[in-house]
Amino acid sequence: MYRSHSCGELRASHINNEVTLSGWVQKSRDKGFMIWVDLRDRYGITQLIFDEERTPKEMMEKAKSLGREFVVQVTGTVIERESKNAKIATGDVEVLVSKLEILNQAKLPPFTIEDETDGGEDIRMKYRYLDIRRNPVKDSLIFRSKVSMEVRKYLTDKGFIDVETPYLIKSTPEGARDFVVPSRMNSGQFYALPQSPQTFKQLLMVGGMDKYFQIVKCFRDEDLRADRQPEFTQIDCEMAFVEQEDILEIFEGLTRHLLKEVNNVEVDKFPRMLYDDAMRLYGNDKPDIRFGMEFGELNAATQHKDFGVFNSAELVVGIAVPGGNAYTRKEIDNIIKWVKRPQVGALGMIYARVNEDGTFKSSVDKFYDQEDLAKWAEITGAKPGDLVCVLSGDTNKVRAQMSALRMELAERLGLRDPKVFAPLWVIDFPLLELDEETGHYHAMHHPFTSPKPGQLELLDTNPGDVKANAYDLVLNGNEIGGGSIRIHDKETQAIMFKHLGFTEQEAKEQFGFLMDAFEYGAPPHGGLAFGLDRLVAILGGQETIRDFIAFPKNNSGRDVMIDAPAVLDNTQLKELSLQLAIEE
Amino acid sequence: MYRSHSCGELRASHINNEVTLSGWVQKSRDKGFMIWVDLRDRYGITQLIFDEERTPKEMMEKAKSLGREFVVQVTGTVIERESKNAKIATGDVEVLVSKLEILNQAKLPPFTIEDETDGGEDIRMKYRYLDIRRNPVKDSLIFRSKVSMEVRKYLTDKGFIDVETPYLIKSTPEGARDFVVPSRMNSGQFYALPQSPQTFKQLLMVGGMDKYFQIVKCFRDEDLRADRQPEFTQIDCEMAFVEQEDILEIFEGLTRHLLKEVNNVEVDKFPRMLYDDAMRLYGNDKPDIRFGMEFGELNAATQHKDFGVFNSAELVVGIAVPGGNAYTRKEIDNIIKWVKRPQVGALGMIYARVNEDGTFKSSVDKFYDQEDLAKWAEITGAKPGDLVCVLSGDTNKVRAQMSALRMELAERLGLRDPKVFAPLWVIDFPLLELDEETGHYHAMHHPFTSPKPGQLELLDTNPGDVKANAYDLVLNGNEIGGGSIRIHDKETQAIMFKHLGFTEQEAKEQFGFLMDAFEYGAPPHGGLAFGLDRLVAILGGQETIRDFIAFPKNNSGRDVMIDAPAVLDNTQLKELSLQLAIEE
Q: Is-annotated flag, keyword Aminoacyl-tRNA synthetase (chains A, B) (predicted)?
């Protein structure tokens, strides 16, 4: 038996007990006649004490030899600590060691195993197994485990069945690029790894499974960037005999359950916002509503003056920055520089200060008088002391720019408090999205999403106007989940594929199995998928997902530690080549 | 709202309520003036009634049009049934329909959606979404979900953390062949899919995670055969600061928890058996101990007579078949034919009848007298009325043959009752196994398994004799789990790799990351993995795993329904070729 207690367990009530502990040496203080060692495990830290008077000489020597991260087992007596440490749970006691065994030695770690470490990102990633010993990472992984389990409890209680769908599947294009897996048994053929279990969960609904969920890895062979991993985890759900309202209710319940169980936060009924309103008011389909700063459209209020920039703009839009009149000229110039960065792409920014006395001072006083500016303030909701920032240009572009500015200023103003949770449903998404490069429409959610009742006919004439039974769950400016009511009849699905540019033959080859299934009694159904990585990070109050993934990949897709992928040996390469050759 | 109740919910207490139900038409009986329809969903079946007197004519016509597996929604009043059906939970009531909507039509299904279906295996697999509507498959999937959840509950309660390990990893050979995944971002390089998260869970232990579990898909690119899928699910666990005893206790507890929660069966403390004893007494490292028929070794009792077959045999072994004296000569000839089948491979079988009066009649009376045969009976435990079956030959072969015969006869005698659960720990497995073809030793469990204390030295002289800290959990003759205490220091691990035929360079390239980790304070650790597919099948009282997998693959690795894998298109093939070309 390696231990009778964990290192986080001993209290004053254990005084005089003999205990056995195992763990890592966090640090030791050697005063010569006395040595204190902090022993750490997953559960906490306990102070060990060795002293000349009570510890045999040989053991004193051994204790002196203990380096950081040595793995040791000790037996000893719990005694009261002279100087108590109120900062740790075991701070009332220490263990006077009577037996010390070094279970394993350790090289000096390349960074300190402490909450605030001296190790940079790269070195911490390379030695991820050491990084995981640090509380911030360890606690994040434990937090993720708790979130997963609470998801399972909630959904199981609601009658959902956890069904595993296959990982080696037929490629069914869903927007991103598939990872492929050559099949040795079927030369020249390949499996794909699922981008999501979408078609399988729909087949489960055709199969009468009624309520399905799975916490499942999904794969996209896309270029990596910050916070996007080639493999990611999805909470995948589907229900039969449901309308949008049923789904919103269940998954609002799930989100509320998580906020309560893991964050101890109670949240009111989630507000709902039309996609069109989200774009109009926040320039964004995943608005952060922890703070205001809603867009005010200023076209009417700015036209017919001599300011050509606004007159020629498709959209003139402003936001009120609370307390922004306090910005110096230099600070405002900085903001203007910020919006002109290539990543944001605005050509410039007009602003109007709202003085405490209610007068205005703008960067375009030449064109707009006090009355005009009062209207700007009214439309954007600016109050005395605020600053109105105005951008103009093509609607889509200027909305994106203003949305970026809004988020940036809110960040600077401390309005994005990770301890505040503001969930939001965004509903009535467009069915199709125009790819401006190709001029083709593609499915905004995915090709299985149903149009709103009665809008199917619009597909021929105004495809961009067709709304879908599609919804996103947004939390603090992040899309944490999204879903739709699906098409469940073959004819509608065929029409959709046609509009997405599939020939009849292509649709049949790629999705024939699903359309065939629709002919054997497919029930109305719909679902939702949460991105677990991001959900956990947001609930955990973090900006990035990396601490919540035990072994993340770096930006070149390599495992942080093992530096995968590995090059295959020649035999394997030759076999693969052979398989390909047969096909060509 | 598609339904107020499920089809399994209505009882006499609902009489006179107005309800809305949705589901599939199981069947309908049309008596002209009256139509009964059985409406089915995941939860049960409810009888609907339409009759000339109370149902509008138009609706009668619509009801007449309903075919099997049509998806319908009805609203109506719950009424008492005239002829109650005690066989179903809703059998006291029926619903007099006032509103009928056909939500989706259905083509005639290719087999009947009933517990005993008329569809053969192939057709049921092709239309798996229809097969899943049948109770045996549906209930199996629900059963699996329950088992998974109970595993999670037990382990979470015990402090285990669910940590997701990566699926796109570096290839680390573990016996079977890896599936590989070309990386688009790293041309010429490939990920492998994990055969198990073995190295990752060990790194988590080095990382101080202490208790880890995961229910995780694993992949082996092996030839398929019955009940072996290229992707399978593992309950994967690892603990730090543990000895074998700690692990057996936790996972015996898990198994007992499952038997109680999902089978309502209480089981005593699991017996433990040495590997050597299992081989000697059952010829098998996963003995089915629901019944006796233990092997009796008869070498001493059969030598020095004139029967050359036994004299020259390395092993002469017998079992007592309870009541086997009742077999006719023809039946015994049939058994002899059975053991001579190429799949079993015995050259013949000697037998001795134990008559009710205690006398014997054997097939080798020429060589062995009554006294000799009495010894056979004593050693095999045969009683009057039994039959002693004896095989002889090379020890390994004859044990395998006798084990097969024992299982076959037990099956015929009805001794393998799927409702009886006889778990067993088999412990002290050999560390290494001799590959008789190549003459090389390989790791019996895996290269990370630790030898028993003090046996490391034996590796040089008697490698086959070294025992490992390795254990299997056996249930009803199936290995449902296996694990070991791992090596946790670099030196021992290096010695192991050397004995397994790795050069120092190979060991470093393939497992360097793990051995490096061992230098930074690796705790003693060990673990166990359960094969979920088989565990669920055995708990569910089934011989095969197929009903417990939603979308199994057939023997050529193709998805039963979607007929994956698919051939990639030319662009994808060309890119892959290019990647390979760069490497060559």
A: yes
- Can you give the pLDDT at residue B188? 64
Q: Is B174 annotated as a binding residue?
A: yes
The amino acid that residue A172 corresponds to is T
Please determine, for residue A551, whether its predicted confidence score (pLDDT) is greater than 50.
yes
* Cβ(B529)–Cβ(B483) below 8 Å: yes
B-contacting residues of A 119-148, CB under 8 Å?
127-133, 138, 141-142, 144-145, 148
Could you write out the three-class secondary structure of B501-555?
A: CCCHHHHHHHHHHHHHHHCECCCCEEEEEEEHHHHHHHHCCCCCCHHHCCCCECC
> pLDDT tens, A411-449?
999 999 988 999 999 999 999 998 888 888 889 888 999
What's the mean pLDDT in A273-300?
Answer: 97
Residues in B closer than 8 angstroms to A246, CB to CB, are: 1-2
Interface touch B171/A566, C-beta < 8 Å: yes
d(CA B425, CA B257): 16
* Contacting residues for A346 by C-beta, under 8 A, at least 6 apart: A339, A340, A391, A393, A398, A401, A405
Pick the CATH number of A128-274+529-584 from 3.40.30.10, 2.60.120.620, 3.30.930.10, 3.40.50.10490: 3.30.930.10
For residue A565, the model assigns a pLDDT of 44
| Closest approach of A479 to chain B, Cα-based (Å) | 22
Amino acid found at B325: N
> Do A551 and A561 contact (CB within 8 A), yes or no?
yes
- Hey, CA dihedral for A357, A363, A365, A370, is it positive or negative? negative
Q: Does A39 contact chain B (CB < 8 Å)?
A: no
Domain ranges, ordered by start, for chain B: 12-104, 291-412
Q: What's the CA gap between A301 and B487, in Å, rounded?
A: 75
d(Cα A293, Cα B467) in Å, to the nearest integer?
71
* CATH number of the B291-412 domain: 3.30.1360.30
| DSSP run (H or E) holding B148 | helix B135-157
Q: What is the pLDDT of residues A9-68, one digit of tens each?
A: 999 999 999 999 999 999 999 998 999 999 999 999 999 999 999 999 999 999 999 999
Cα separation, B73 vs B23, in Å, equals: 7
Is B420 a residue whose pLDDT tops 70? yes
* C-beta atoms of A565 and B162 within 8 A: no
Nearest partner of A47 among A64, A25, A16, A17, judged by Cα: A25
Count of residues making up chain A: 584
Class at the top of the CATH hierarchy for domain B12-104: mainly beta
**Any binding-site annotation on B370?**
no
Q: What is the pLDDT of residues B87-144, one digit of tens each?
A: 999 999 999 999 999 999 999 999 999 999 888 888 898 899 999 999 999 999 999 9
What number is the ipTM of this complex? 0.93
Count CB neighbours of A159 within 10 A: 12
Q: Is the peptide bond before B565 cis (omega within 30 degrees of 0)?
A: yes
